[in-house]
Design goal:
It is rod-shaped and about 70 Å long. It has one domain. By secondary structure, it is an all-alpha fold. The N terminus is likely disordered. The protein contains five helices and no strands.
Length: 141
């Protein structure tokens, strides 16, 4: 299944890379959708806070709840952006056929982080891709 250095990968490796590329791309798209939804929710929290403040019905409990919700959304958004960045690097490595870079980016921990913070679809696809990347032959030095 492996090919010599400087040669094109074997057809089996090319098919595997194509499959992995598709899974990583779909995971990337779903992670971006989740990030957009998090931005919309953060905008809603900010809008609600401004509206409640403008109406003069501010209470310490409501302010604390809105502040906590906004803080949690910012944390989720930051983690999601990191997952998107790492997934983009994985996609670029598959697109370029760089198995060494792909294997170095492959991490079960990041797949689980994606599952928790970037959505179920993105996480499951990255988990499946994790096992398929492990099955790829190690690049020859």
């Amino acid at each position: 299944m492996a090919s010599a250095p400087g040669q094109a990968p074997s057809p089996e490796v090319e098919r595997a890379l194509g499959s992995i590329r598709t899974m990583v791309l779909v995971a990337l798209i779903f992670a971006i959708i989740i990030a957009i939804l998090e931005l919309v929710l953060l905008g809603d929290v900010i809008f609600i806070g401004a509206a409640v403040s403008k109406l003069g019905v501010v209470s310490p409990v409501a302010s604390a709840e809105l502040g906590l919700a906004g803080f949690l959304l910012v944390v989720l958004l930051v983690i999601d952006v990191v997952v998107i960045s790492r997934t983009w690097k994985m996609y670029s490595a598959t697109k370029n056929g760089d198995i060494a870079a792909l294997k170095s980016l492959n991490s079960l921990g990041w797949a689980i982080v994606a599952l928790i913070f970037a959505g179920v679809v993105a996480g499951v696809l990255l988990l499946i891709a994790y096992w398929r990347i492990n099955d790829l032959p190690s690049p020859q030095a």
